[in-house]
Write a structure and sequence with these properties.
The complex is a heterodimer. By secondary structure, chain A is α+β, with helices and mostly antiparallel strands. Chain A has 9 helices and 6 strands; from the N terminus they run αααααααββββββαα. In chain B, the strands form 3 sheets. A 4-stranded antiparallel beta sheet of chain B has the order 3-4-2-5. In chain B, strands 8-9-7-10 form a 4-stranded antiparallel beta sheet, with helices on both faces. A two-stranded parallel ribbon of chain B has the order 1-6. The chains are: A alpha+beta, B mainly alpha.
């Protein structure tokens, strides 16, 4: 899957041009949002079940692999912009670039931790896909089921970007991760400042994962 | 004095029946006077002088606030609901007992304070409650708009989802206080109730308690009196005043115990017991009465047996007892005419007189029978006994009486009255011994005496043989005596005193058991010091000063019922008021519980709690598994019905809580005028005195801690009173009284001895058995682990009296007999000393079987003390006398002068035989 993604990156312009012309047809084509989610989650599950990555001594390697998968699947820039909301507009290009990198790194680390702690030993049921009119956004509802039968609904929000579906948010039992970021970022910027927010994120980044 | 004794003897010999009739008439008069004019006063407060400042303050306290709450029913609060129901049932019963119960205090009527209940929460708790409301206002609003179990658990689940996401993604941003998921305690409380409801039963207990607050805020909803740690509930009972008998509160305490027993039958799982000052006193009285009854029987039997063994017949003992009875009756009349009352201390004069008053009869009979044995007819023997024995026995009686009269100088009313009555009683018993006893002997003729005299002709009984043997080995005896005395000397510094009144009580007595239980498990004392103030400002100042003392646990006053930090709390109200007032005005309609949705939500919560490490959340998860299991296994219609009913109770409760909150945050500061009258009257007296109750930090039954507590509270206010102070002063005054009394007694007996013998050397001999016996007694106390306490301190005058009398009789007889008189000293006076000491030992020794530790220790100590003095009197003193007589004999033999021998030994001119 990863090699396929890289090939598509190489022909980015062609995809964009095609997208402009093909519109919705792209969103509904094979490799749709449901497939994208299934492909990513299956990839993550395979990594978690890979005997070569099992054991405490391989935790770091396993995290790295999952991190790569997340990095590849999520659109950090879109997520960062949404999480900052109105504040995004007031940032310079350099600030935005810096913020996206910082946000992406922290998100990746956190989401890896979530995947490792919640996916292991669970089964996932996919409950279809809902593509928004225009075909550029989609929602894929899933349910995590424990061996005991407890169910946890998890929804993936994706957008079609540069010829493929990328994750822009995950909603865990009704709570959006990006929305959560937005609330907290807004609170810090409102009560302190953007610089203070960045300072806290920098401190967090320097901590061991 | 000889002619007087002879004259008395002649009168008795000529008119025995007149003398007896006069004695009986005097007895009747005395008993009549006692019946009319002798009042029984109970309670330790009657032992101290009313002129003492602490006593006056105690009286003021009683006048202003009444002697309240003297009986405490302690209810174990291990099962809170049942304990509260027990309390209510008990109070109902006690309210019907108008005969014994004057007032019951078991709850504070907080109805008028409930609207201001939030002000009674500690400021920190109030801020926490305000924070909870602020954090969960949306959730609260949602519950008000759409009340129901589904809404509640949906909200909980959502909060947990937020918590989960925040935990993984933004925890590093939450350095300040953030609205966390709902308190695990609330969730657990609700799930517990939910489980009970799903199972179809269980009383509703508000799960909102501790989360929002409880209606009433810091004022407990039941407002029952409880220990600070909640371990016990209390019902405080004030009994009706009664002056009947020696244990007037005993009947009331028993009545309360009957009520407790009856209620306990309905609540077998609730443990309860009766204690408090009245119960302790009543139990003590009951124990002591039982002890004294048993001991009296034992002592009478023992003394009679002794007499029978010594006199080989019943008539002599009965005559001695009759004489003693007359002496005791006259003393009752004397007490009625001089003091007019008996307190718990002076009432002990009867056993003391039985122990000491009998001695005069014993010594007179010893002299009489000795003369009879030597062949004198009744008339001559009696005259000889009275004329020769009279002066010495009188000196002994004066010395013993002086020992008790010395207590008049003690600054302690209980001892002063005991000293006067017992001192007078000793002299009256002496009077009876020299009138009633000889008159009985004369009136009944010689028959009774002859039998004894025949037996007595064998002369050297076991006791006499032993005494003669000791006399013949005087050197060895003195050596042994000196060795024991030297060994006993170091123990002087090791003898201990324990003035803990609780330790005097019998073990296992209900009041003591519960007093100790409260002391140990609730770490609180039922005792409190009392201070007064004239203004609320003074109350506040004193309260703060007392509370700052390390020996003080807490201080109660009327201000204790005014919340602390009211301005700060009102600020919290002002801050939270907009949030509370912004809540929806009315609750929405409740719908039936959607079982499927509920189970799904609970499953999601359970999912999120996987792998949590916090024990409280692990318990929540386990509880959810159980609840889901029960719901899944029960008929859906039934469980839906049960849960819907529970939902209704739950949200009715929430409605009340919210309504309370809305009113509570508009409350103004609580003022003194608003306090319930029943409460205020306990702390503000009719003449405007404000009361402060000062509770000790630790158990102050221990004398050292009591002294430290008393000293500390007096640094704040010299006029502190109350039971601990009274007990401290009472104990101190009593100990000082005995110390001073002991010293004066010693001086008095020395003076009397000197007046009797006029030779320093003889006085030294007289007090030798006393000094040696006291030393040995102290050695025995250390050896046997006996400590001085407030009950056995009476030994001080007793031992001084008895010790000096033994010395007086022996030295007096020795002085009379001159050369070769040691045989008479040993045979007659020695036997008398043995018998009189043994009667005292048996009389008091019988108390050793008492359950009351104070009484039993008194019995043991007096027996040990009198025994030690007796051994010293029979071993050391005769040995010293014999030794000295032989030395003097040698010295005088060389001079060839009998006169100089007598003078050398006695300092007197030889008397005519």
């Amino acid at each position: 899957m990863l090699s396929g993604i890289k090939r598509r990156k190489g022909s980015l312009w062609m995809v964009l041009v095609l997208a402009l012309f093909l519109g919705d047809a792209h969103g509904a084509a094979a490799g749709g949002p449901l497939d994208r989610v299934r492909e990513t989650l299956d990839g993550a599950r395979r990594l978690l079940q890979d005997p070569a990555l099992a054991g405490p001594e391989r935790t770091e390697a396993r995290r790295e692999k999952i991190g790569t998968l997340i990095r590849d699947g999520f659109d950090y820039r879109a997520m960062a912009r949404q999480a900052l909301g109105e504040h995004w507009k007031r940032l310079s290009t350099a600030q935005r670039r810096h913020f996206v990198a910082l946000f992406g790194e922290l998100f990746e680390r956190s989401y890896t931790r979530l995947v490792v702690s919640s996916l292991e030993g669970q089964t996932i049921t996919y409950e279809g896909e809902q593509i928004a009119p225009g075909g550029r956004a989609a929602t894929v509802p899933t349910v995590l089921i424990t061996k005991g039968g407890e169910r946890l609904p998890v929804e993936y929000q994706l957008r079609h970007h540069a010829g493929r579906w990328v994750f822009v948010d995950v909603t865990i039992d009704g709570v959006s991760i990006v929305k959560n970021y937005q609330i907290e970022f807004n609170r810090i910027i409102g009560t302190r400042s953007y610089d203070e927010l960045v300072r806290k994120m920098e401190i967090k980044r320097r901590e061991a994962p | 004095m000889g002619p007087h004794w002879g004259w008395i003897a002649q009168v008795i010999l000529r008119r025995p029946w007149h003398v007896l009739t006069g004695a009986v008439l005097l007895c009747l008069f005395a008993l009549g006077a006692a019946w009319v004019g002798l009042e029984l006063q109970v309670g330790r407060s009657k032992l101290v002088s009313s002129t003492e400042r602490y006593s006056q303050l105690h009286t003021l306290y009683n006048q202003e606030f009444g002697d309240r709450d003297t009986v405490a029913v302690v209810i174990d609060n291990a099962h809170p609901g049942r304990a509260a129901a027990f309390t209510e049932a008990l109070v109902k019963r006690l309210e019907d007992d108008r005969e014994h119960v004057r007032e019951i205090f078991y709850r504070i009527d907080t109805a008028s304070l409930r609207e201001k209940g939030l002000l009674y929460l500690p400021l920190q708790d109030l801020r926490r409650v305000a924070g909870q409301i602020e954090d969960h206002r949306d959730f609260l609003a949602e519950l008000i708009r759409d009340p129901g179990l589904n809404t509640f658990f949906d909200g909980i689940n959502r909060q947990m989802s937020h918590g989960l996401v925040a935990h993984f993604f933004t925890d590093f941003l939450t350095e300040e206080r953030q609205a966390g998921p709902v308190d695990a305690r609330l969730l657990m409380a609700l799930l517990t109730q939910l489980q009970a409801a799903a199972e179809g039963g269980g009383p509703f207990v508000s799960p909102w308690r501790g989360w929002l607050t409880t209606a009433g805020g810091g004022v407990p909803s039941d407002a029952l009196l409880r220990s600070s740690n909640g371990r016990f509930l209390f019902v405080l009972v004030t009994t009706k005043d009664s002056q009947q008998g020696f244990n007037p509160v005993g009947e009331a305490v028993q009545s309360i115990r009957r009520a407790v027993a009856q209620v306990s039958e309905q609540f077998p799982e609730v443990a309860a017991g009766v204690t408090g000052t009245d119960a302790l006193e009543a139990d003590e009285m009951v124990t002591v009465r039982g002890d004294v009854t048993r001991a009296t029987f034992l002592s009478v039997v023992g003394v009679l047996l002794l007499f029978v063994v010594f006199w080989r017949g019943m008539r002599m003992p009965l005559f001695a007892m009759a004489s003693l009875t007359a002496g005791v009756c006259w003393t009752l009349g004397f007490a009625a005419l001089t003091i007019g009352r008996l307190n718990v201390l002076s009432a002990t004069f009867v056993p003391i007189l039985i122990g000491l008053g009998i001695d005069f009869n014993v010594h007179l009979l010893a002299r009489y029978t000795e003369a009879r044995r030597q062949g004198s007819p009744l008339e001559g023997a009696l005259t000889q006994a009275m004329t020769k024995g009279g002066p010495v026995i009188l000196t002994g009686a004066l010395a013993t009486a002086a020992a008790f009269f010395s207590l008049l100088l003690a600054n302690f009313r209980g001892l002063v009255e005991l000293g006067l009555i017992t001192g007078g009683g000793i002299l009256l018993c002496f009077g009876a011994a020299f009138t009633v006893l000889p008159a009985l002997l004369v009136a009944t003729g010689e028959n009774g005496v002859r039998a004894w005299a025949l037996h007595g002709r064998r002369d050297l009984s076991g006791v006499s043989r032993l005494l003669r043997r000791l006399d013949s080995h005087a050197g060895l005896v003195l050596l042994i005596g000196a060795f024991i005395t030297i060994m006993a000397l170091p123990t002087l510094a090791r003898v201990r005193a324990d003035f803990n009144l609780l330790n005097l009580q019998a073990r296992g007595v209900e009041s003591v058991k519960w007093e100790l239980k409260v002391l140990q498990e609730a770490e609180m004392s039922s005792w409190f010091g009392v201070a007064f103030a004239r203004t609320p400002g003074e109350v506040a100042r004193k309260q703060a000063a007392f509370a700052s003392l390390p020996t003080v646990g807490r201080v109660e006053s009327v201000l204790s019922f005014i919340p602390d930090d009211q301005p700060a709390k009102l600020q919290v109200f002002a801050a939270i008021r907009p949030t509370i007032e912004a809540l929806p005005p009315g609750f929405g309609a409740e719908g039936p519980v959607d079982l499927g949705r509920l189970m799904d939500t609970l499953g999601r919560i359970q999912f999120k709690l996987q792998g949590v490490r916090e024990p409280a959340l692990q318990q929540v998860r386990e509880r959810i598994v159980r609840v889901l299991g029960i719901i899944g296994a029960t008929d859906p219609t039934e469980v839906r019905g049960n849960l819907t009913a529970f939902q209704h109770a739950l949200f009715t409760d929430l409605r009340e809580q919210v309504q309370f909150l809305k009113r509570a945050v508009r409350a103004q500061a609580v003022t003194l005028d608003e306090l319930p009258t029943a409460l205020k009257s306990r702390y503000v007296g009719p003449s405007g005195h404000y009361l402060l109750k000062i509770y000790p930090e630790k158990n102050i039954w221990d004398q050292e801690r009591l002294a430290a507590f008393t000293k500390a509270v007096r640094t704040v206010d010299a006029d502190v009173s109350g039971d601990p102070i009274m007990t401290f002063e009472y104990g101190r005054a009593m100990a000082r009284g005995y110390q001073k009394g002991g010293l004066y007694t010693l001086l008095a007996v020395l003076l009397i001895s000197f007046l009797a013998f006029r030779r320093f050397f003889l006085v030294l001999l007289v007090i030798t058995p006393l000094l040696v016996g006291v030393l040995w007694t102290i050695g025995m106390m250390v050896l046997l682990g006996i400590e001085f306490n407030l009950a056995n301190l009476i030994i001080v005058p007793l031992i001084l009296g008895i010790g000096i009398v033994n010395g007086l009789y022996i030295v007096g007889r020795y002085r009379q007999e001159r050369r070769g008189g040691m045989a008479a000293v040993v045979n007659s006076t020695g036997r008398g000393v043995v018998l009189s000491s043994l009667t005292t030992m048996v009389g008091f020794g019988s108390l050793a079987i008492a359950q009351h530790h104070g009484v039993s220790s008194l019995g043991v100590l007096v027996s040990v003390g009198v025994g030690s003095v007796l051994v010293a009197s029979l071993m050391v003193l005769p040995a010293l006398l014999g030794f000295h007589a032989r030395m003097a004999l040698k010295a005088c033999a060389s001079e060839g002068s009998e006169r100089s021998l007598v003078q050398a030994v006695t300092g007197d001119h030889p008397q005519k035989q």
